[in-house]
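EI: anyone free to look at a 128-residue chain?
SC: sure, send it
EI:
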Amino acid sequence: MKLRLAIATCALVAGAFTLSACGKDSPEPTPTTATPTSAATTTPTTSATISTAADIVGDWVDAKVQWTVHFKDDGTFEEDYQGISGFRVGNYEVTGSEVSLIGGDGNTDKGKVEGTTIVFKLGTLTRK
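SC: here you go
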């Protein structure tokens, strides 16, 4: 039963991310073998500059797609998606203006910092 639930969950995740990319002309992200870095333990900032993992620690949301990412100060994240808490977990990295969500499911999603938001294919996150 647990195996069936795990398979169904993986299928839902894959479907959600596949559908979120429909209609967009940008290329699919390529998987990465990057090693997660730990975040510094500094106070999160609300400025337009996000340049380190410590700068994004906190909760970020996109209410339109019902997606929340909880960036923790230990370099891990947890996603809530459409009412499902803990939908996906993993590690994150910040390199320049790029934020990588390296999921425990083997998928890596890359977003780009644009001002005070982080833009992913699934949606645009704003600090809560």
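EI: The CA atoms of residues 101 and 109 lie 5 Å apart.
SC: 👍
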